């Protein structure tokens, strides 16, 4: 989507980190910033079964370790 926006094909609604370099280089600019809600990070939905597969558990643990919490994002 970022590439398409750079080529003039329209507006790209993407997370900041996807377009950060293009914005910094002057290839894109932020528009409608007041209309875009701030996302508090990643959301992961999974079954509430007691036994979560080991691969999924490892992924969840990785996200918890590496992603800032919604409170940390709001304080920035």
TrEMBL record:
GO terms for molecular function: DNA-binding transcription factor activity; sequence-specific DNA binding. It comes from the Bacteria. Residues 2-66 form the LysR substrate-binding domain. GO terms for biological process: DNA-templated transcription. InterPro entries: LysR-type_TF_proteobact-type, LysR_subst-bd. Belongs to the LysR transcriptional regulatory family. This is LysR substrate-binding domain-containing protein. It comes from Pseudomonas putida (Arthrobacter siderocapsulatus). The lineage of its organism: Bacteria, Pseudomonadati, Pseudomonadota, Gammaproteobacteria, Pseudomonadales.
